[in-house]
Amino acid sequence: MAATPDAVMRQWFKEVWNERNAEAIDKLMSADAKVHGLAGVPIIGAAAFKPFHKTFCDSFNDFKIEITQSLVDGDRVAVLCHVTGKHDGDALGGKATQQPIDFWGMTMGRIENGQIVEGWNTFDFLTMYQQLGWVKSPVEG
Predict the structure, then answer these.
(1) Which partner from 2, 39, 56, 81 sits 20 to 30 angstroms from 121, CA to CA?
(2) CATH class for domain 5-132?
(3) Local structure of residue 111 (DSSP, 8 states)
């Protein structure tokens, strides 16, 4: 029996992100997948996704992504994600701040044959940058 879109997406966040298993990228993402919303331009393919993955894993050694809700419609799945951790690595473009992060995001993926073939992401990186002290919050004055 083929894996459901929900099961594939949950496995993606568990293995790729929470377990930091780069080999799972090749297993769960098609070689020509298109990923939107993470790097300013689409990331095309599993091989091109790996540097993005490495940067985040090297910057947040203990971060976790929890799927709190999911919705499935045919071959598509949307998940609401809660991201927590601590900025303890220098790979993101600035020195490690040791600050905690706590923000939300959503991903919608299209799944074929047990792999992600296209993904759309909207994560609140502005809040993350504010928590790191890299961007001032307008409510701080």
Answers:
(1) 2
(2) alpha beta
(3) E
Q: Identity (one letter) of the amino acid at 137?
A: S
Supply the DSSP string of 28-74, one letter for each residue: HEEEEEEEESSSSS-EESHHHHHHHHHHHHHH-TT-EEEEEEEEEET
Per-residue pLDDT tens for 2-46? 699 999 999 999 999 999 999 999 999 999 999 999 988 999 999
Q: Using an 8 Å Cβ cutoff, are 47 and 31 in contact?
A: yes
pLDDT at 135 over 70: yes
C-alpha 120/C-alpha 70 separation (Å) is 14
Provide the 8-state DSSP code for 13: I
Give the C-alpha distances (Å, rounded to integers) separating 34 from 29, 90, 119. Answer: 9, 27, 6
Give backbone dihedrals phi and psi of 43, rounded to 5 degrees, phi first: -95, 125
Task: Return the exposure string of 101-128: e unless at least 16 CB atoms fall within 10 Å of the residue's CB, then b.
Answer: bebebebbbbbeeebbbbbbbebebebb
100-117 pLDDT per residue, tens: 999 999 999 999 999 999
